[in-house]
Amino acid sequence: xxxxxxxxxxxxxxxxxxxxxxxxxxxxxxxxxxxxxxxxxxxxxxxxxxxxxxxxxxxxxxxxxxxxxxxxxxxxxxxxxxxxxxxxxxxxxxxxxxxxxxxxxxxxxxxxxxxxxxxxxxxxxxxxxxxx
Length: 132
Description:
By secondary structure, the protein is mostly helical. The chain contains six helices and no strands.
């Protein structure tokens, strides 16, 4: 089975929250494993792409999250994108990005079973299909 078919199958049976958790865990795994320049560049590019997808969805008119929460998440995403650019250029620690992702993972896990909407799922579904 091809990687894209496997990812599509996995995403078809996962809840939106699980897909979002998978995306944050995936990029954190890449960041943690980045031991050389190429691995670092790939990890940072995928992190930047994930946040681009999330920011785009958070800014769309159909997003059902409260406006204040969307604004805060967009701010975090813009910070993360800036951080990815800086870390690619200076070789500094990736820990602040990974800490943000751990916080996002923790928040998403806390929402399991809650009636509140999760982060946008369609863009993350598209992200995991493209990068897996």
